[in-house]
Amino acid sequence: MAASGKAKEKEPVDIVHQNAIHVETIMKEQRSQKLYTKFSINPFKKLHVLTDKPMARKTHEETEEDPAFLKTIHGAHLEPTKKYTHPMTEAQEIGWIATPLIVSDRTDRRLNFPRQNSEITKYMDAAWRLKEQTQNLG
């Protein structure tokens, strides 16, 4: 295991050989694949029918509803904070706790800055409204 002074250079990629490898791989995949054209319902799985047949004489009040199925459907429509006790993904961590950290006080002048109009802004607001009215009339 004598180390040579030169590092072994990599040969350039031959596109023809790469293409031959891809063709051979695709041929192997196609040999093992089956194309299914007939589909049917799995007889071993319980089927939940939600709607009646169009010509059925049974009224809506007489139909039986599976409470476990309804609970599952309603549970699937809940927001994540009601479904899980903690976030399941990193994206759910953002906004998981939606309650504000402090109660907002609208009368506190340090944190609340309501819009205030000066004489110039009141004048420009009136001029802008007058301009809009004259444009709408003409």
UniProtKB/TrEMBL annotation:
Family: Belongs to the CFAP144 family.
Location(s) in or outside the cell: Cell projection, Cilium; Cytoplasm, Cytoskeleton
Pfam families: FAM183
Record flagged with keyword Cytoplasm: yes
InterPro entries linked: CFAP144 (IPR029214)
Organism: Electrophorus electricus
Domain of life assignment: Eukaryota
The protein's name in its UniProt record: Family with sequence similarity 183 member A
Chief site of localization: other
GO cellular component: ciliary base; cytoskeleton
Keyword terms, alphabetized: Cell projection, Cytoplasm, Cytoskeleton
